[in-house]
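[User]
Um, tokens okay?
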Amino acid sequence: MDSLTIGRSVPRVDGPAKVSGACVYTADVPGAGTLWGKFYRSPLPHARILNVDTAKAKKVSGVKAVISAGDVSPRREGYTLQDKPIFAREKVLYCGEKVAGVAAVDKDAAEEAVALIEVEYEELPAVFDPLEAMKPEAPLLHPDYASYLGPPSMAPDLKNVQSVMRAAKGDTARGFAESDEIFENSFRTQMVHQGFIEPRACRVEIDRDGRIQVWFCHQSSFKVRRWMATHLGIAEEKIVVHPVALGGSFGGKEGYEEALCTYYLAAAAGKPVKVVDSYAEELLDGEPRHAAVIRLRTGVKRDGRLWAWEGKIFYNGGAYAARKPSPKANMSGTFMLAGSYNILHTLMEGYAVYTNQIPCGYFRAPGEPQTLFAVESHVDMIAETLGIDPLDFRLKNVLRAGDTRATGEPLADPRGAEALSELGKISAWKKTFLKPTRGRKLRGRGLALGDRHVGHGESSAEIYLERDGAVRLVTSVRDQGVGAYTMHRQVAAETLGIEPERVRVEIKGTADGPYDEGVRGARGAHVEGRAVLRAAENLIACLRKQAAAYWRVDAGKVEWQAGKAWLANGRKSKNLGLNDLARMIEAPLKGYGHYKAEKKPSVYSFQAIAADVEVDAETGAARVAKLYFTYDVTKVINPVIHQGQIDGAIVQGLGYSLMEEMAVDEGRVLTLSLGDYKMPNIKDVPPLVTSLVQAKEGPGPFGVKAVAEAGISIVAPAIANAVYNATGVRITELPVTAEKILAGLARLSK
């Protein structure tokens, strides 16, 4: 039977509210008597706190509360590794760390009071580079690390290491001994921000019954409730996290310390408090993508087979690990250190390292843009030395059916070869691959390959049939822009056999909504979509029972198809639709669905990209003229949303490649506005040709595969490879700037 709604680009559920301005974000939540909260932040990267004087701040007219470390729990917090105090206590470890908070009747009074807080410091030696931080002579930033709650350290003998991840297969010593040539290269990447335009904000009110009411732009309401309850030592039912529009996130709205800080201000003032970050505050103390140092060593056979591979990545974790959601407080990108290739002998290690910089968190495909920039640049360098076309070299080594990943994990339905072959076709790679050109305009091409694992997690959904025939989908998902509500409506409609317009989406909070772990790791279609599918299937089971009661038969004899109940033996000529059954019920029928996805071997989404670039030989400026992208899919729920995720990720990858960088000097973030922090605008976006490769297996409803994190990780290496092809200048440190290219051209001309 043809799909009723799957594969249709139905309008977005949240579209009208967002384009009309009716959408309610945290900063828009009304509330009489709500105070403004602001924080005093450390101006130093590493210092001992000798004294905090808030006397002058408390005298400012309109100030209702001033608090610091002595007014809050000493418990350290963190998503996984609990290493961060709510307010700095004995020491500050980075510029921007919260030392004190103020609640006042308006923003001006709060800012005036913050400016009057006086803190006496004793400056301490600081370290900003992860490799320097691991040296014996570096200052030890967390002497009490062994007492922190969270995953046990895998590197107790390594200085300032937050966490370590390792994976291996085969025997690398043997592999390198058997190799005909060995290649070693190092790369660096920069720290970047997620670039969402909606500010981070939180509002907390303690009601007359002592319940804590929370409005917070966060990806998981239920996790916020659990964390706050654990921290405060109270029952979760005493905390209600309300639904508000999240706005963009891209992984950058996962931490929860703002909710605790805002709560403590509200408790001290005895009134509701709202905290809305400025962009300067967001850039100073958000959850940016880690800068990283990557070292690769590869052994290759004379015929071009990758034979042995060692990769190490050192993530600059900043002053705390608290903002990393991974169970190991590290980056899953570690496991892409050998790329998408079949290699017999591998060893991969990822180190997250403490430094005196802003604590980093997750950003779309966490850890992978850093890793794949290095891997795919390194692969091109090997191919050139061996005299093999870059596309052919990848096709020779790409993972195929029966192969295992560099982690030893088996694969189901890998489509890397198909993605590469399709890329060759749509880009006419063999016909137009360029040799270095002469003149002012230098043109070149580059490509890159990657894949993305499937996220796992837990979610629930409810679907109701009302007596008037209305269908309600109740969810607690916080859609961070992926179009989850629209896709979920389509899944429900397809399963029930009705038009998607008949499904009304209701977004609930923790008080009355079904549990959801949070949209991240490309779970919107997979995990949350599966929960919706099960809710719809369970509602159908209820509808079959209702029809069976009407026909006075066993429910097992009733079928459901195309939105109608009918008898399998065909004896009843009248079918019963949703409206017919709705008129028979005395109370709404409910279908509940719960889905918990465990990690399984397996389904990865493969992607490949080619970039055409033009470099001005006089200025070094690089312009991307065109991009070609291939991606393997099964079914696509909503083509416009699907393509939008691809386009958005590639544009973010473009910014990461060419312009975005949080400039830091001695731990101080210098780019404190979006004017200083450059992101691509529409004029920077080149034409994009996308081609989808058909795959067979996917983990989501109707076998769909995730797409949200596709594209972003492989743009940078494709552009860097194209710049090299055009100029002969190999960029090993992001971003790819005109200054670096010009300096490289100058070196080549000597």
Remarks:
- The longest strand covers residues 306-318.
- The domain at 31-124+198-247+253-285 is CATH 3.90.1170.50 (Aldehyde Oxidoreductase; domain 3).
